[in-house]
Amino acid sequence: MSENPGHNQLEEVLRLRGVRKSYNVGLPTETEVLHGINLTLQRRDFAALIGNSGSGKSTLLNLVGLLDTPTSGEIEVLGEATHTIGDRRRTMLRGRSIGFVFQFHHLIQAFTALENVLMPLMVAHGKPSAKQNALALSLLKEVGLGDYASRKPDQLSGGQQQRVAVARALVTHPALLLADEPTGNLDSKSAAEVFDLFRKFNQKFGCAVLLVTHDANLSGQCDRIITLTDGRIESDSGGVVSIDQ
Amino acid sequence: MWTEWTIATKFLREGRSQSALILIGIGVGVAVIVFITALITGLQDNIIDRTLGTQAHIKLSAPEEINRILPVDDDSVQLILESKRAQRLRSINNWLQLRDVLDSLPEVTAVSPIISGPAFARRGEALQSVALVGIDSERYQQILPISDDMIDGIFSVGAGKAVIGKQLAIELGISVGDKLRLQTGQDGDSVLSVAGIFELGVRELDARYVYLDMSQAQSLLNLPGAATVIDMTVTQIFNADEIATRIRKLTGQKVESWMETNAQLLNALQSQSLSTNMISVFVALSVALGIASVLSVSVVQRTREIGILRAIGISRSKMLRVFLIQGALFGLLGSLLGGLSGYLLVWVFNTFGPKLFFIPVDPNLLFAATVLATLTGVVSASIPARRAAQLDPVEAIRHV
Hints:
Strand content of chain A: 25-35%
Oligomer: heterodimer
Number of helices of chain B: 14
Order of helices and strands of chain A: EEEHEEHEHHHEHEHEE
Strand order of the largest sheet of chain A: 6-7-8-3-9-10
Largest sheet of chain B: 6 strands, mixed, barrel
Largest interface: A-B, 29 and 27 residues
Low-confidence stretches of chain B: none
Strand content of chain B: 15-25%
């Protein structure tokens, strides 16, 4: 497995400037969910994003993950401004630089664990090379599923599926790993395993982790805790650089 | 394309029962189209073969005789009570030269001058009205290979010989070698020996045709050196009308193609083709709708997976292609299945059917059906595929 010692741990992977998001724009029901978010994340960051439901966590995560576009404001990923680029480029940037882990361990049921891990490389480059295969297999070993490579998702437990999803999120060596309630669906043992994996990869790959969670126990273990209340960042503790308001 | 292909085939294999059902559905549709097309093509070829088997594609005869009306002064009114002229039997002018000109036309394959007229055939007390057909045996056989239809004796119209149909032979009680007396209104009267008896399967011909040598018929009909009709066959039977028109302009004679004389038959054939095409179109339409609905359901079922694929970086165009490929595969595999079943049906029909006619097996039909069905698959997949490509990843991932 290639480690990335070359990465500057303070390299900025994400910058949000005055990001606002409204739904039903132009309709009488227009609601602004995020009211001007400023935020930066660096490679070494291991951050929890917490907040009550309805505070805009998921919306923020979708924006950061380039799955959605802000109504106004700027989002830069690895220094590249994203508000002017088209869907094609945004998709490419997302595939290359951002890894996702969702609550319901979304694996593609028709593919084996190994193929699921390879999927981000397949959609970007086509048929995976032997080297990419080896990388995916080593990641599966890393998450403790080396022997399960040829199993289909429905032959794996929830915790195992989530670990496959973590391996998949990391196969492209993303700069940023986004996790939406990644342990919400798991028993405490599996949850701890998955969390440890995040920690491990954060240190090993220098991949910033932003983790949305309700679990105070989990967020307590993070280096940085960003609290979102009613679409505003209420507090941001433990970060290397505090947010510039 | 590798990625799209892999995802598409995995998806199809995962939804195995769904895929199998729609493949059977497409197969049945394509089998119906292939079978009905082959059946109707076979039937029509057969009908045309039978119709043209006993007649020339184009017939040339002398123009009808008409009354010439004397022109009158401009300021007078002319009232005419016209008594149409009786069309006497007469020769085509310069038919020998005409024959040579027609011989030189590339689209005309055979030219056979004939002299034909009415007569009575008599044997003892029995009297039958017949049509004398004086032929140049060699040329005539290029139009109608009557030697193949002989049931007794040989086809020979040499000096003093005649060949008659089976029905006439029965009615006059004649067998090969017997004498036959022919009388015409033009004081012609001669006795010939019957060299052979044919059966064409068309009652009118089998009961009335008496084949003679041209010169024999000319003397019986009192038209020395004459030919009343020139029969022709052409390479492209459905161009007969066009060729007839050209020959009419070229020669100034009366020229009729089989398409004019069999207008009703052609009309029937066209209606039949039209209804076959209608059936094919509607079957194809329901096949297309079947593919579209199966893929639409699949897109809904896979909404979350599509969202995930989009999140991990698959582009809209690749997502689109994943579903287009599925549609194409449905069309391709379904039509192969259906095409083979269709041919099986044709084989069953040919082997165990009523054996009224044979359905030819045209490999091009299978090829055309496969190509068309694959295209239909792609087109039908385009709507669900577009929906898959346009899915908002955020909502797709949340979809349960």
